[in-house]
């Protein structure tokens, strides 16, 4: 047998969310990569969600940045690495010489590997001597970090995933776990199925997919969480549930926190009024929490991304400290981290106000420890600028050079037009990315091609402190290089010693050693300690199994992890006690008024990752939500003069965009929800970051992404349309367009203001059709304003275009099916002209199950025709929901809706 013919699976870690699932990637002989869950990985035990399952479809080299580029005379041109690195190092040296170290900045990302992050931080804080390095984790986890530090004395997540299964009650606050941490959510749902007495409470202004499995949903008004949790603290005190022994032995500040909560929140009815929820639901929640010892309260961006984010975090932690429900199995507050390496970034001190290895920038003894260990010429001695301030400093000229790595701030920052202005003015903008065209790259003076997932090597740490390897299984494409290497090469060119590493394992080794360096000498040992992994050679590093820090080596040298912290009641404050923090509820920074009467909430959808540079490549992931939408209550829509399915202009004091109006997202009156994923690459005008106000939390500096006063009004157009095309098109002449990837084509949704005199000529021009003899099918009803055209090549469909004055256009799912055919039959041609399939059942509807490509119509028809009663029956019948399970909440909703329709 030829052993070399057997494909070898590489065990690695998913590059998306903070669940940190283990992945088995198997390069196949045809060049494709088979992706499967790693059954031996503690986070996911073999399961993957839809984004993880589709990883193999995102690895193609189309659109990749493969060579360094330099801006010259306005345009970018290809350059050698030497030239590019010289330009960066020389530029930085000159700017620092003239304006000092604070005139340069790094803006990095929780999607870097720990080793990349370690080097970036070392360069900036130890060698350049400035702390002007911040990261997109500022936009994500910084309120949790600040809350942890206030409560525990260090940024420590007490529990682990298993606690969510062991709990008798799980409270999800500001977290759409079903869509954003799907595998963790499935673990909760499975635990609940096994123990139906386990309760799930969801606290979210929207009725999200996560709510489909909840026993209780509290649709609190945006921004009112401190009211709710302060009210809970009062209730616990009023009902004798406070664990006085624990509070006395292990905490400080309880009385002050309770007194502060009492001011506004002693009466659950007042709390219910402030949160705009049914008082009975508030009381139910409080009673359930009071009666259940094993409670986990898990939270995410609905908590963190707020001008009161840090107080929200502490108001939650207070309730766990008051009841002593922390540090034991099945209980505790739990921050769900967003990015794959949000936690690793915190370990290396990637934020502007931190030092490496969980040490503090404002403690002289820590600065000395780090500088001595690094043997570095300098050490930053005061905090650098946090993300929002950092881009303001670029705009006003205090910062003259910025190097952006693995993040797309022109899309993801609040007041994103300000970021655009800042980068336009900045003397030297360096961007390291894996794709060539992003909104941010458009402002780069130097573009550096990075290795992407599957190519790069290193470690990441997930939400439960589990360090795991990402392993490369693909060759470096073009001239792409690892981010840590590019950083070291610039550092060396700037004349700094301390950046010579034979490989990424040596970077990890240094990081591990630093965590143990002088680690008990300063009175309170630092909890973050992974020194047990120091000294690994390349082979041992490659074999590293997932481990939860802090780590210990047993006498035989075996390394053991720690699933839970604080079991001994000791915290990281100098006195070993945790802090209850007094918090007072306050309103968001900017309130709706007559001009901007609604509140804009922003967040994620199930099948896309952030600015879509990777998930956007997968056709399987494209269909679930094909374009930007503004979800709103039907009555608000009526008042704004907009209708479901039509386009609306959504604007705030900071910026504007266009999105399709949608109901059904379970939104209360007064608020709207817009997804974050669209950029200038995927739509003419759908970058929601431009609308978001730049207010930040005073402690953490995290932006208020979930609350901006907004106005929604009609976006007037004279026609709607769409194109499916095998070739890429330029649609800049159209008032509104959005692009999404199909299996063998690109799909463009369009809307226009222009009057079209000659449909045929106009369509051919839009489709860039030059061949006058092309096989062209056309239907025109001028009086109705309806037009349909298709371009065929050798009997196969090449492009099609549909126009109507209203958005009631033919089914894209049916047409997408035609692109998969070798040739079109007569019935298909007739269908194209009719604008609907001739065959029954050919229109499967928008995709619900992305894994098996099962559409909404197919599911609803099966529910009706076969009387299906449960998601399990739908799966048995259609496979839908049977792979990753991400769509099960939606199938449950369809079951409900279809039955409601029947009885109506
Ligand atoms: N599919 C997908 N998954 C992802 C990502 C992705 O891009 N796509 N990104 C990852 C990253 S980096 C992150 S940070 C996480 C984010 O994960 P989540 O935080 O779960 O996601 P979001 O959609 O940003 O926001 C969560 C919810 O907060 C609610 N919310 C808004 N305001 C409030 C409030 O005042 N109080 C409460 N209680 N709730 C509120 C919103 O309605 C929303 O449903 O997801 C990770 N996972
Ligand atoms: N309105 C609104 N805005 C938000 C949020 C919100 O809820 N609402 N959430 C915020 C949050 S929590 C987050 S985490 C951010 C995320 O926002 P971003 O970090 O800006 O989003 P990404 O699309 O993940 O950007 C990652 C970039 O790095 C590139 N990349 C991928 N891998 C690598 C690599 O290995 N090396 C390098 N050099 N580049 C790589 C990708 O192509 C992409 O361009 O968005 C924030 N912005
Ligand atoms: S839940 Fe999905 S996106 Fe998150 S790590 Fe697991 S497979 Fe990746
Ligand atoms: Mo995030």
TrEMBL record:
Keywords: 4Fe-4S, Iron, Iron-sulfur, Metal-binding, Molybdenum, Nitrate assimilation, Oxidoreductase. Its cofactor is Mo-bis(molybdopterin guanine dinucleotide); [4Fe-4S] cluster. It holds the Pfam family Fer2_BFD. CDD domains: MopB_CT_Nitrate-R-NapA-like, MopB_Nitrate-R-NapA-like. It comes from the Bacteria. The lineage of its organism: Bacteria, Pseudomonadati, Pseudomonadota, Betaproteobacteria, Burkholderiales. Residues 7-63 form the 4Fe-4S Mo/W bis-MGD-type domain. Belongs to the prokaryotic molybdopterin-containing oxidoreductase family. NasA/NapA/NarB subfamily. This is Molybdopterin-dependent oxidoreductase. InterPro entries: Asp_de-COase-like_dom_sf, BFD-like_2Fe2S-bd_dom, BFD-like_2Fe2S-bd_dom_sf, CT_Nitrate-R-NapA-like, MoPterin_dinucl-bd_dom, Mopterin_OxRdtase, Mopterin_OxRdtase_4Fe-4S_dom, MopterinOxRdtase_cofactor_BS. Transmembrane segments: none annotated.
């Amino acid at each position: 047998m030829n052993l070399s013919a057997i494909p070898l699976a590489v065990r690695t870690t998913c590059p998306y969310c903070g669940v940190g699932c283990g992945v088995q990637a198997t390069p196949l002989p045809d060049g494709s990569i088979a992706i499967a869950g790693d059954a031996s990985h503690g986070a996911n035990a073999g399961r993957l969600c839809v984004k993880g399952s589709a990883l193999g479809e995102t690895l193609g080299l189309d659109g990749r940045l493969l060579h360094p580029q330099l801006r010259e005379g306005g345009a970018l041109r290809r350059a050698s690495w030497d030239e590019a690195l010289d330009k960066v190092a020389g530029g930085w040296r000159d700017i620092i010489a003239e304006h000092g170290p604070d005139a340069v900045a790094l803006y990095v990302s929780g999607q870097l590997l720990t080793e990349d992050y370690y080097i970036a931080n070392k360069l900036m804080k130890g060698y350049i001597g400035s702390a002007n390095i911040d990261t997109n984790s500022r936009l994500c986890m910084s309120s949790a970090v600040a809350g942890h530090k206030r409560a525990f004395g260090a940024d420590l997540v007490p529990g682990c995933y298993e606690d969510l299964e062991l709990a008798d009650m799980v409270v999800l606050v500001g977290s759409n776990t079903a869509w954003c941490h799907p595998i963790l959510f499935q673990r909760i749902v499975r635990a609940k199925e096994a123990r139906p007495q386990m309760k799930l409470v969801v606290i979210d202004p929207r009725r999200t997919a996560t709510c489909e499995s909840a026993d209780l949903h509290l649709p609190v008004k945006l921004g009112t969480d401190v009211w709710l949790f302060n009210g809970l603290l009062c209730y616990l005190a009023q009902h004798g549930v406070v664990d006085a022994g624990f509070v006395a032995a292990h905490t400080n500040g309880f009385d002050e926190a309770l007194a502060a909560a009492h001011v506004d929140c002693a009466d659950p009815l007042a709390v219910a009024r402030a949160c705009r929820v049914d008082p009975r639901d508030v009381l139910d929640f409080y009673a359930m929490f009071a009666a259940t010892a094993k409670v986990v309260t898990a939270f995410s961006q609905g908590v963190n991304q707020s001008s009161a984010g840090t107080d929200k975090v502490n108001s939650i932690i207070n309730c766990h400290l008051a009841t002593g429900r922390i540090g034991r199995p099945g209980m505790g507050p739990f921050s769900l981290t967003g990015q794959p390496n949000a936690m690793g970034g915190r370990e290396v001190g990637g934020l502007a106000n931190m030092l490496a290895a969980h040490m503090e920038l404002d403690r002289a003894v820590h600065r000395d420890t780090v500088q001595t260990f690094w043997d570095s010429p300098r050490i930053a001695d005061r905090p650098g600028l946090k993300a929002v301030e950092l881009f303001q400093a670029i705009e006003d000229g205090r910062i003259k050079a910025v190097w952006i790595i693995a993040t797309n701030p022109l899309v993801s920052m609040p007041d994103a037009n300000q970021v655009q202005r800042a980068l336009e003015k900045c003397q030297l903008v360096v961007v390291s990315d894996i794709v060539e065209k992003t909104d941010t790259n458009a402002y780069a003076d130097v573009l550096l091609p990075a290795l992407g997932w599957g190519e790069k090597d290193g470690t990441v740490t997930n939400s439960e402190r589990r360090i795991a390897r990402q392993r490369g299984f693909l060759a470096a494409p073009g001239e792409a290089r690892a981010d840590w290497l590019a950083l070291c090469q610039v550092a060396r060119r700037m004349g700094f010693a301390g950046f010579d590493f034979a490989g990424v394992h040596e970077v990890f080794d240094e990081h591990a050693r630093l965590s143990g360096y002088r680690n008990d000498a300063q009175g309170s040992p630092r909890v973050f300690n992974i020194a047990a992994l120091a000294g690994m050679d390349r082979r041992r590093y490659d074999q590293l199994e997932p481990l939860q820090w802090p780590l210990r080596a047993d006498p035989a040298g075996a390394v053991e992890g720690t699933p839970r912290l604080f079991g001994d009641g000791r915290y990281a404050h100098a006195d070993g006690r945790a802090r209850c923090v007094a918090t007072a509820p306050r309103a968001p920074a900017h309130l709706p008024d007559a001009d901007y009467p609604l509140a804009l909430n922003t967040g994620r959808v199930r099948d896309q990752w952030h600015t879509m540079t990777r998930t956007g490549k997968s056709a399987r992931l494209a269909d679930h939500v094909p374009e930007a939408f503004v979800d709103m209550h039907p009555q608000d829509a009526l008042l704004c003069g907009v209708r479901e399915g039509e386009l609306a202009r959504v604007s705030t004091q900071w910026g504007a965009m266009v999105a399709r109006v949608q109901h059904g997202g379970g939104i209360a009156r007064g608020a709207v929800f817009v997804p974050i994923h669209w950029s200038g690459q995927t739509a003419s005008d759908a970058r929601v970051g431009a609308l978001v106000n730049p207010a930040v939390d005073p402690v953490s500096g995290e932006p208020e992404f979930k609350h901006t006063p907004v106005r929604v009004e009609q976006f007037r157009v004279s026609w709607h349309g769409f194109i499916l095309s095998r070739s890429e098109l330029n649609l800049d002449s159209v008032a509104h367009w959005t692009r999404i990837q199909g299996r063998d084509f690109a799909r463009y949704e369009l809307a226009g203001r222009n009057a079209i005199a000659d449909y045929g000529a106009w369509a051919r021009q839009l489709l860039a059709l030059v061949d006058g003899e092309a096989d062209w099918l056309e239907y025109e009803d001028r009086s109705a304003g309806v037009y349909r055209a298709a371009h065929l090549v050798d009997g196969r469909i090449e492009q099609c275009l549909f126009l109507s004055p209203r958005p009631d256009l033919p089914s894209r799912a049916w047409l997408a099916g035609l692109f998969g055919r070798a040739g079109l039959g007569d019935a298909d041609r007739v269908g194209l002209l009719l604008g609907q399939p001739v065959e029954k059942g050919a229109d499967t509807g928008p995709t619900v199950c992305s894994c098996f490509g099962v559409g909404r119509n197919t599911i609803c028809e099966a529910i009706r025709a076969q009387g299906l009663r449960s998601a399990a029956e739908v799966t048995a019948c259609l496979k839908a929901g049977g792979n990753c399970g991400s769509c099960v909440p939606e199938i449950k909703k369809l079951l409900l809706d279809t039955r409601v329709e029947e009885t109506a």
